[in-house]
Automatic annotation (TrEMBL):
Pfam family, one: GGDEF
SMART domains: EAL, GGDEF
Protein's name in the database: Diguanylate cyclase/phosphodiesterase (Modular protein)
NCBIfam families, per database record: GGDEF (TIGR00254)
Domain annotation EAL: ranges: 182-431
The species this protein was found in: Kyrpidia spormannii
Organism taxonomic ancestry: Bacteria, Bacillati, Bacillota, Bacilli, Bacillales
Gene Ontology MF: a single term: cyclic-guanylate-specific phosphodiesterase activity
Domain spans labelled GGDEF: 38-183, 613-767
Length: 771
């Protein structure tokens, strides 16, 4: 063979092109149809990088993939090619050819054949990837080519050669990815730009605490039922064909026109980073256009998509600063999705940070995602960037985000994108209001108060005590993520616990399977499982769990409410909750006592004042603390403050509720927020415990004398009695008080009066307040 012949042979083998017409042999009926003057359609498929796939995953797995491909194409070809009739399906290696025909229909046009081939490629690729996910987790895709053999004299005379030529053409189309569909798309896209055939839909962005709409994101859509309906396809194609600026101008113009329908809310306008270099993207022109619409730049937020990398942050930041000087705001989109998101947030210092939906998806089930979102919240608080959670799609995601304190949210669960700009979904709005009080309490609980275990329990499927063991085995087999289930009696009270590993171990013994599979589950359950009430603090539950025998330490804990099954908590959830308490407490707590500081105290008071329910506030102050501190020094003074914090926490834990607050205002000033019906009992408990323990802080001789020698502010010698505590109690009914500052002023007067009395006392506000 000549050198040229050898090269052609290698080229043909590489592209899987037959070297002669015999290699393209098919069912004899196909050449016969060609001789009869009928048309034949051909679609060729080649698995992308299958040779590399075989190197990575091995020949055995790849053979199973090809077997699955054979089954799939034989099952679906007739359906996917209808109304055409499949004549033959031929596979060699990872190359597949489908021949088809229709007796009473004309041959398809080039674009029609291209569309059919593309649809087949997408459907087969999706379904094959799904079937083979356990073999090739990275997914599978096809190159696709096509050809049409139309009847003519040459075809009738040499049908085999016509088939061979058609086969080569289909292979080359697949390898070069040249198709008629691309040409048709180019024509459609040109018409789209010429006719400005796009429209805008708007999706609300809400305050998570109130459900109030603060803005709308403008989302661009192409013509319905077309390739360009999806914004990813639309803008991706625009960038691919160098028409991004032109498309963005149209989208920007149409989005801004919708501002007048947003009822004063902000407009979040998606901006590709490359667009800042567009000469027509000028802040003064946009500002003038907004003035014509009767609005101002501060209602427009340029949302920078993070998925397109920013190459020169310095230049880009300077460009954005130009728009900010004109009053526009900036948001970074898709933060946390990868690429340069963290750098974008750090470099651009945005007004809003939109957390990518990949971090929001299933956040209620993923502790790592919750930690990442908490990190963004901390970052936002320190830099002034307000956090928006994107892609909220379930009630559980919403509740979790509200519990974490995420201020703003957006997603299909809250409202679908639409035009005219839609309101919040009624069911979602109701759920947000129901969640709000609980989420504030949950969040503040993690910041220094008691966290009830019921707040982290999950309503996992339960089993009746008479359930047959094999049904429980089937359940565990079908739900591999479930570690354990509670076994309930007919009265819905817990009777025991079944843990997956222990059940399988027991059935795996010599006679275990034969003895137990057809018998009730109560014979193999643990009847001595740890059961706690839903208001038990997680710290207490943790201690109880760790005190169990070694073989039970990692068993789940059953949670009840008034003795009735409420949910299940795994040890991992328990540890996550305790870690969350420690992390959140460290973020906002007073560094000396670990109690919530002024910011969280103010949040709690505002929440209670607006909550429509009565509550009580106990302001606490130590008497003679300055003299004690001067006499014994700061270290002993810190001991006194920490002892006071401990006493307050103990009394509230004993008499109050899990959502009560003990806060440290600063120095020797503390606050308790609780319920009116227990407020006086808490005050008495604090006084009794304080008076009992405070002598321990003094030296023996001072303790015995009952006073210390000190000096007053005029430097005169004085004798100060042992420290006492003064409490100011205010019962707050709806509408009586308007702000934390008002409560603080009233408390100051009450404390002054209390300090004028001897010993530890509490003084209650009794003046009439108009409702």
């Amino acid at each position: 063979m000549s050198n040229l012949g050898a090269k052609l042979s290698r080229w043909a083998r590489k592209l899987h092109v037959p070297l002669n017409s015999k290699d393209a042999a098919t069912d004899p009926r196909i050449p016969e149809l060609l001789r009869e003057g009928r048309w034949i359609g051909m679609i060729y498929f080649d698995l992308v990088d299958f040779e590399l796939t075989e190197q990575i995953y091995g020949t055995l797995y790849c053979r199973q993939v090809l077997t699955a491909l054979d089954e799939l194409i034989n099952e679906r070809a007739e359906e996917l090619l209808a109304p055409h009739r499949v004549l033959e399906i031929s596979r060699r290696g990872d190359d597949l050819v489908v021949y088809f025909h229709a007796t009473h229909s004309p041959p398809p046009s080039g674009p029609e054949l291209s569309r059919t081939a593309e649809q087949l490629r997408e459907r087969l690729g999706t379904e094959l990837s799904a079937r083979c996910k356990h073999l090739i987790p990275t997914g599978l895709n096809f190159h696709v080519g096509f050809s049409l053999i139309e009847p003519d004299d040459d075809t009738r005379e040499n049908a085999e050669r016509a088939l061979y030529k058609a086969y080569k053409e289909a292979v080359l189309v697949a390898k070069n990815q040249v198709d008629a569909l691309e040409m048709e798309r180019r024509r459609d896209f040109t018409d789209l730009l010429l006719n400005e055939a796009i429209h805008m839909v708007y999706q609300p962005i809400l305050r998570m605490d109130s459900g109030r709409i603060i803005g709308y994101e403008a989302l661009c859509r192409g013509p319905e039922n077309s390739f360009f309906t999806s914004p990813l396809n639309l803008f991706g194609y625009a960038e691919k064909t160098n028409h991004l600026y032109a498309l963005d101008r149209i989208a920007r113009k149409k989005a801004l026109a919708g501002l007048i329908e947003l009822s004063g809310a902000m407009l979040f306008l998606n901006i590709n980073p490359k667009v800042v270099h567009d000469p027509t993207f000028r802040a003064d022109e946009i500002r003038d256009h907004l003035q014509e619409l009767g609005t101002t730049p501060d209602r427009v937020v340029f949302e920078i998509t993070e998925r397109t990398g920013i190459e020169d942050f310095r230049s880009f930041r300077q460009s954005l600063e130009y728009y900010r000087q004109h009053g526009f705001k900036v948001a970074v989109d898709d933060a946390g999705a990868g690429y340069s998101s963290l750098q974008a947030v750090a470099e651009l210092q945005p007004d809003f940070i939109k957390i990518d939906q990949s971090l929001i998806r299933d956040i209620d089930q993923n502790a790592t995602k919750r930690i990442l979102v908490e990190t963004f919240l901390t970052f936002g608080e320190k830099t002034g960037g307000r956090i928006i959670a994107e892609g909220i799609e379930t009630a559980d995601e919403l509740a979790t985000l509200q519990g974490l304190g995420v201020p703003f949210g957006q997603g299909f669960f809250l409202a679908l994108p639409a035009y005219p700009p839609p309101p919040v979904d009624v069911a979602a709005a109701r759920l947000m209001k129901e969640n709000d009080t609980q989420s504030v309490r949950d969040r503040n609980s993690r910041l220094g108060r008691i966290v009830p275990v019921g707040g982290i329990s999950q309503g996992v499927t339960t089993m009746n005590i008479h359930t047959v063991t094999k049904d429980v085995v089937d359940f565990f087999t079908g739900h591999p993520q479930v570690e354990g289930v509670a076994v309930l009696g007919d009265d819905h009270r817990p009777a025991g616990l079944i843990m997956r590993d222990k059940l399988f171990n027991q059935l795996g013994t010599q006679f275990g399977f034969a003895v137990y599979t057809e018998r009730p589950i109560y014979l193999v359950m643990d009847p001595q499982a740890l059961i706690v009430e839903n208001d038990t603090p997680v710290e207490v539950v943790s201690q109880l769990a760790m005190a169990r025998p070694d073989h039970k330490v990692y068993d789940s804990i059953i949670v009840t409410k008034n003795g009735i099954y409420h949910g299940l908590v795994s040890v991992r959830q328990l540890l996550d909750a305790i870690t969350g308490i420690q992390v959140e407490a460290a973020r906002f707590a007073n560094p000396l006592t670990g109690l919530p500081g002024n910011r969280l105290i103010e949040e709690e008071l505002l929440s209670r004042l607006g909550g429509g329910q009565p509550f009580s506030v106990i302001y606490t102050d130590l008497d003679h603390f300055k003299g004690f501190n001067d006499r014994y020094g700061f270290e002993r003074g810190d001991q006194a403050i920490k002892m006071t914090a401990s006493i307050l926490t103990e009394q509230v834990s004993r008499l109050g509720r899990p959502d009560d607050l003990v806060g440290h205002i600063g120095g020797d000033d503390f606050i308790v927020v609780t319920r009116p019906e227990v407020s006086e009992a808490i005050c008495r408990g604090i006084i009794e415990a304080f008076d009992e323990r405070v002598p321990e802080l003094y030296d023996p001789e001072d303790r015995e004398r009952g006073y210390i020698d000190s000096r007053d502010r005029q430097d005169r010698p004085v004798r100060l009695p042992l420290m006492t505590v003064s409490l100011a109690l205010i019962n707050c009914h709806p509408g009586h008080y308007q702000s934390p500052e008002e409560l603080s002023r009233i408390a100051a007067g009450l404390k002054k009066y209390a300090k004028s009395m001897e010993g530890s006392v509490f003084v209650k506000e009794r003046r009439h307040r108009p409702s």
